[in-house]
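Throughout our pipeline, every protein is held as a single compact record rather than as scattered files. The record that follows is passed on verbatim for readers who wish to inspect the format.
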Amino acid sequence: MPNVAIAGCALAVGLACVGCTKKPPPGEEGPRKPRVDLTIVLATDDAGPPASESPDTVTVTPRSPPTSLQMFERSGLHVAVVGVPAEGDPEPFMKAAVAEAETAGSNATILVSTRCLGELEPALEKNVGAFWTVPVVVGRRCEGSVKTNVGAAALVEAGGVAKVRVTFDRHTRAFLKVDPLR
């Protein structure tokens, strides 16, 4: 009798299953959801993240962005937080910082700046492909109007919202949706 493939298992003579993989029964937590929600909390002071941060939360401080790359693991995702300096051309810095975060294993990079979002918007629009892993850009309020999104990235005004929820696909680790929360 020839080998026949049925439902992903290779059957051989005598109906012995070779190469079958059974899924283990769901654990006490139940089956894993196909989506992961990560909450970005915008701290209002320089105190930094709370001592007991939940496993699906990353806290950033818009008034004092980090001076170096910060990496976090939350709900199985690797998240980088990058502070964009207040001086100089933001475009080359942002491109290099996002590339560095991706090399370090980041699934998503959050850009935080004390700059007006209007100053960051042109760099994001010009290089939208380079910033495909950036779900959220946090900056200060501008005099003029600023788009709410550039590509897939949400532009969030510090003080405008308290939290941002980012939904990821658990398998591809790509972000799917960004929702500012009041």
